[in-house]
Design brief:
The protein has helices spanning about 1-5, 15-20, 30-40; strands at about 75-85, 90-95, 100-110. By secondary structure, the chain is an alpha+beta fold.
Length: about 110
């Protein structure tokens, strides 16, 4: 089941059950669901979009409104994202210059 999840991380318990049955395993959906929960496996799928306007508690004011970014090193932006690895996650932190759209610096950390 772990190898099948590695190839198809978007499979939920229903599709996982169907694939395992195709491969000759005698399993039902409740067993696959329980085993996936025990193994910490869950399908990767798009989560709710919190950037929509109806989620007002997440809205923040745009602090650069009215500013003209006219030269390099005037405004920088940061981004933190996580990358899924074989045994966990790595976090990528980047600093970006908004004028030139170039990465100033980055750091990769566990």
């Amino acid at each position: 089941m772990d190898m099948l999840y590695t190839v198809h991380p978007y499979f939920g318990y229903r599709r996982m059950t169907a694939k395992l049955r195709e491969k000759g395993f005698d399993v039902n959906r409740k067993r696959v669901r329980r085993l996936m929960r025990l193994m910490g496996i869950q399908a990767i799928y798009p989560k709710p979009n919190i950037s929509k306007r109806l989620h007002a508690k997440y809205c923040r004011p745009y602090l650069l409104r009215g500013w003209e970014i006219t030269h390099p090193n005037h405004v920088w932006g940061v981004d933190i994202t996580y990358l899924r690895m074989g045994r966990g996650f790595m976090y990528l932190f980047t600093i970006i210059d908004w004028f030139s759209r170039k990465v100033i610096d980055y750091e990769l950390s566990s």
